[in-house]
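Before relying on records like the one below, remember that each one covers exactly one chain. Contacts with other chains, cofactors or solvent are not represented anywhere in the record.
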Amino acid sequence: MTSSRSPGGRGPAPPLSRAQRSGVLRLAAGGRADAAVQQQVLRALLDAGSSCAPADVIAALDRRVGSCDDIGLTRVGARLRALHATLIVAGDDDYPPHLWDAWPELGAPLWLFSTGARPPAIRRPAVAVVGTRRPSTDGLRTATALGAALAEAGVTVVSGMARGIDQAAHRGALDGGGTTIAVLGTGLGVDYPARSGDLRLAVAASGALLSELPPGAGPRPWQFLARNRIISGLAIATVVVEGREHSGALQTARLAGGQGRDVWAVPGSINAPASAAPLALLRDGAIPLTGIDDFVTAISGSATSTGGRSTPDVAWQLSADATTLLDLLGAVPASTDALMAASTLPAHAVLAGVAELVDRGAGVMTPHGVVRS
């Protein structure tokens, strides 16, 4: 049985019992505890000051939506065995560590269905490369070259298996002899996009195919938007190569920023529709990607200096009060009152310290308090 880690790295949490793990599978198989419902339950637990440990979230979800019957559970179990797939629960040892950094407030899913080689792909620093399904030839070249260069540098490439930029990034990583992870907008075992089976097999052999949907779940528009938070959460940085206005790639980048991850964008012509998303991101402060070699060097240096985490090593730049507060932060939002009680600092010092942490990129403000980035 796998063990669980508590949010924010606050020591080990009790491993899930066999009954609890069966409960997760029942919830996932039932299809009613989707991403939106999980976020509603988490928000209610946070508002009530209750525990957001995975076991407590499982119990709260079961009370709210119930789970599937024995027939449905048997069917899903058979599909998982046929696909050589496993169920990973938040806090498990093989749950992706960068995604665990986003639990519970910043979009990490309670569970993932996974097939493929997986380790060490999920433990390496990863970069998400995303973009439009209707790219230019230059966009395709850029995505392929990015995937290959990152792979050669030992960085895992994450994308969403969509036609266009996503598949080009996956293929580039494979061409570079590296690892790549695809986060699907369907369940495992679904031929979507159609006739992409060979690429899915190659991605699985190199890294992993991941989905929070039960195996066999077909494509629906909202599922592709929901999976974008997983793509961004897996990575220390997200790159948007090309994307149109209001595109999924733009949403992925916004989610990455909210999770405290770096956002890069490839500049393009102001007259090209596929440049709308990168240009909007650059306007809002994204880092311009002007050369692949320089980008890979920057990413590799960031991954090395942070041990694979997304938080920059800024402790030496912080004031004493901000350093004290940084040590108290984890993935569970901390309110000003909670930080005052834990640090014994006065309110004005806590407010100033939190502002400093957010400004330096060491903290991210959420509706329920600050978290460590």
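The mean pLDDT is 87.
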